[in-house]
Write a structure and sequence with these properties.
Length: about 450
């Protein structure tokens, strides 16, 4: 059964346009509160609401707060804070629900709603479908009586709680003294907590992307636009650069030479270190179908498995929980370290890499160069979602083009074509030993998709 509003990472869309309107945000809150009320009985439910720095966050935060209060639910508002902080606070504050208002790495015009359960994990598909069912119904009949309305309050020390939480992921007494770090906060949710946490751990910190104005989140800064960070690392002769995205649940690294390092190399460094220290709960890690074959070969060489999940950190987490893994992530920079948290956490992952950097006393370019990646090309084809939905991938010519491309690669590479779960885009990825061949194959498939769309 498909979902009408929720995608792979909550509800997302352009701000003040359906479904990202104040009205829909209020209905989502009311529906979620009703689902919780039916499951929990008479006790007053609590929800914590965080957001990033988008202008539309003010509108959606207030709309959702009103929706929850109208259904008899108490609301705790944190202001701008990373997504993993919301997941942590949901558990720490004994809330029944956590809400993060963010569209992650998307531009400021977009926004989204992510929901976490009382355990700090993203809600599963069945609960999201139940919430959707109530969103499409008349909720007026379920409003709380005047005496049963909820209350709203602000948690002023939310950033400090999160900083202390991630600092505890390091060994007692461990510091980052001696490291010069440039951190790019993407003008997003971590613009205060990231530089503050690093400074408290005694690093020398240079901060960029920390002047949000509501409209500049992810605009030329952050994990998806690292050129400013690359320039700053070399200019300041820093040991490393950390790039977070708008809600700080992902991390891309820049080494001391200014080279960009993706999530595959980060996972490789952590996996081999944790294996050596006996910290892996299973002989392997979880990543997605997008991770490079080079990572898979490296792990195999060291007696570790790479379990692949569908794209999306929620699916990585699901596979980790099913198999008892404590390390997983995505090439795009989402890292889940389940010994410490329940969702992707860019800053926490950064601290673990910084700890390794200091412990091994080697340059970042050496620590984060664990394998030679296979050439990999990713191209996107945008299509008219309202007119054709996911139809291009059902087209016979598209299916044939994909099959022909995989046939030409045979055992020397792979083709992956999938629809994005967050926007009307089809992603075409080819990976193999011959870069010119995979470039040609991706072009052929993209052209066929464009004709079909």
């Amino acid at each position: 059964m498909t979902k009408n509003y929720f995608g792979t990472d909550g509800i997302r869309g352009q701000a003040n346009q359906f479904p990202m309107t104040a009205k829909m945000a209020m209905k989502a809150a009311m529906a979620a509160a009703l689902v919780l009320r039916k499951k929990s009985g008479d006790h007053t439910n609590r929800v914590v609401i965080g957001k990033d720095t988008r202008l539309s966050g003010y509108m959606l935060e207030q709309a959702m707060s009103a929706g929850f209060v109208s259904m008899g639910m108490d609301v705790i508002i944190t202001g701008p804070i990373p997504t993993p902080a919301v997941a942590m606070l949901t558990r720490s504050l004994r809330c029944d629900l956590g809400v993060m208002i963010s569209a992650s790495h998307n531009p400021f015009q977009d926004n989204g709603i992510k929901l976490f359960g009382a355990d700090g994990f993203k809600l599963d598909d069945n609960i999201e479908r139940e919430i959707e069912k109530h969103m499409d119904s008349n909720l007026d009949e379920d409003l709380a009586l005047p005496a049963d309305l909820g209350k709203a309050s602000r948690l002023d020390d939310a950033p400090g709680r999160y900083i202390e939480y991630i600092k505890r992921s390091l060994a007692r007494g461990e510091t980052l003294e001696g490291l010069k770090i440039v951190v790019d906060c993407a003008n997003g949710a971590a613009y205060k907590v990231a530089p503050q946490a690093l400074w408290e751990l005694e690093a020398e910190v240079i901060t960029i992307g920390n002047t949000p104005n509501g409209r500049n989140i992810n605009d030329g800064f952050g994990a998806t636009a690292t050129q400013h960070l690359q320039n700053a690392v070399t200019e300041h002769k820093a040991d490393i650069g950390l790039a977070l995205d708008g809600d700080a649940d992902r991390l891309i690294i820049v080494d001391e030479t200014g080279a960009r390092i993706d999530g595959d190399q980060i996972m490789a460094a952590l996996a081999l270190s944790w294996q050596q220290k006996g910290l892996l709960t299973q002989p392997g890690i979880v990543s997605t179908v997008m991770s490079n074959l080079g990572l898979e070969k490296l792990l195999e060489k060291n007696g570790l498995n790479l379990e692949r999940a569908n794209v999306g950190d929620r699916y990585v987490v699901e596979k980790m929980r099913e198999g008892g893994f404590n390390l997983g992530g995505e090439q795009s920079g989402h890292m889940i370290l389940s010994d410490f948290g329940t969702t992707g956490d860019g800053l926490l992952t950064g601290l673990q890499i910084l700890s390794l950097l200091k412990e091994q006393d080697i340059p970042a370019s050496q620590l984060l160069n664990q394998f030679t990646p296979f050439p990999q090309i990713l191209k996107n084809v945008r299509f008219a979602a309202k007119e054709s939905g996911g139809a291009p991938l059902e087209n016979d010519a598209v299916k044939k083009a994909i099959a022909d491309a995989q046939g030409r690669l045979a055992q020397t590479g792979r083709i992956l074509v999938r629809a994005s779960g967050t926007e009307p885009v089809i992603r075409v990825m080819a990976e193999g030993e011959d870069e010119s061949l995979i470039d040609q194959l991706t072009d052929d498939i993209c052209q066929t998709i464009e004709k079909a769309a």
